[in-house]
Amino acid sequence: MIRTIWLKLENSDGIVLLMILWVIAILSVVVLEFSFGMRTEANMTKNFKEEAYLYGLAEGGLQRAVVELIYKHDPGVQQKRKALKENIPPEKEEWITDGRSNLLPFVQGECEVRIMGEDGKININTVSETFLRKIVGNMGLEEETKDVIVASIMDWRDPDDLYRLNGAENDYYQSLPDPYYCKNGNFDSIEELLLVRGVTRDLFYGRMREEDGKREKIGLKDIFSIYAFGEQIDINSASPLVMRMALGIPVGVTRLIVKAREAKRVENQQDLIQRVPEMSAFIGEIGRLIVYQPRSPYYTIESKAFGQGGSVRGMKTIVKIDGREKKGYKIIQWIDAVW
Fold first, then answer.
1. What is the tens place of the pLDDT at every residue in 288-304?
2. Which ranges of 73-142 would DSSP assign to H, the alpha helix?
3. For residue 11, with 0-12 CB atoms within 10 Å meaning exposed, 13-18 middle and 19 or more buried, which class applies?
4. Poorest-confidence range of 84-98, 198-212, 303-317?
C-alpha cells in the first residue's frame, strides 16, 4: 500500500516537471516572438527616421540650388559678384549649371546637387530630322535601330497619320499588348520618349559606356529637353556629353572647354577660340549651333542625399526662374524618388 502511494507520488512529480518544461518552452517562444517583433519595429522606426532625414537633406539640396539660380538671374547679385571678382569666398561662388557635382556636407551625411541648364540641351520638339539623326548616330547605335528611333520620333510629333519608312503610327501602337495612340503632337515631357517605338529604358536613362578610359551613362534624357530654346546650345551650360553627342566635339577638347569656363564663363566665339585654341578646327562647322548666353530660364535639379550607413535618397525637379512669381521661381516638374 505504502509502495503504491510512493509510486503515484513519483509519477505526479514527473508529470508536474513535464508540464513545467512545456510552459517554459511556450513562454520562451512567446518571448522570442515578442523580441523579434520589437526588433523589427525598432528597425522600421530607425529606417523611417533615416529615410525622413535623408529626404530632408535631399530637399534641402534642391532648395539651395533654387536659391543659387535666383541669384544667377538677379542683376544686383551679379553686379556685386563682378565687383568682388577674386575676393569671393569659395562657398559663395556662383554654381555652374552644366551638371557638375556640388557637395553639401552635413553632420550625418552629405548631399550631392547637380544643376543642368535646359538651354544646354536640344529641344526634342523642334530639332530637325537631320540633326536628330546625327545625335542618335553619335550614341553608337546600329544603323537599323537608329533609323527606327529617328523616324518614330518624327512620326510621334508630326500632326498626320502618315508614317515614314521605319516609323510608327497608330496601327503599330494599337497592336501592342497595352495599346495606346500615337501623339501626333509635341512632346509634353521628355519622359514621353519612352512611349516611342524603339526607345528603350536603357536608351532613355542611359547605357553604361566606356570612352577614353572613363565609364559613363549616355541617355536621351541627358541630351534632349522640351524647354530648350531650339537646336542652338549654350556652351556655358552644355554638359560634356551634349558637346560630344550633339556638337561632335572630341573628349579632349570638351575637357578643355569645361576647364576654361570653370574660371570664367565663355563670352563669345572669339573668347572661346582664344581660351581653347583647339576649337578653331571645329568652329566653322558647328559655330552656328553655339550660343554664349542662356535664353531659357528652365533648369533641371537633381539632389541625392547619402547617409553614413550607405543609404541613398534622391529627388529631381525642373524649375523656371521667374521674377514675376511670388517666390521668384515656379516648380514645373517634381519627381520624388530618383536612385
1. 999 998 888 999 999 99
2. 75-84, 129-138
3. exposed
4. 84-98
Do 236 and 264 touch, CB atoms closer than 8 A? Answer: no
For the whole model, what pTM was predicted?
0.80
Helices assigned H by DSSP within the chain: 2-72, 75-84, 129-138, 143-157, 170-173, 201-205, 240-245, 251-263, 269-275, 283-286
| Rounded CA separation 167/151 (Å) | 4
**Residue 211's pLDDT is what?**
61
Cell representation of residue 48:
523611417
The predicted-structure confidence for 107-153, as pLDDT tens digits, reads as follows: 888 999 999 999 999 999 999 999 999 999 998 888 999 999 999 99
Q: What would the grid cell of residue 71 be?
A: 541669384
Q: Which of 34, 98, 94 is nearest to 294 (CA)?
A: 98
Q: Looking up cell 550631392, which residue turns up? A: 112
Query: Cβ distance 257 to 273 under 8 Å?
Result: no
Q: Is 62 left (phi over 0), alpha (psi -120 to 50) or beta?
A: alpha
Higher-pLDDT residue of 105, 226: 226
- pLDDT value at position 256? 95
Q: In what side-by-side order are the strands of the sheet with 312-321?
A: 98-106, 109-117, 298-307, 312-321, 329-335
User: What Cα–Cα distance (Å) separates residue 202 from each residue in 121, 271, 326?
Assistant: 19, 38, 39
HSE-up (13 A, CA, CB side) for residue 239: 22
pLDDT digits 0-9 by tens, 71-104: 988 888 878 877 776 677 776 778 889 888 999 9
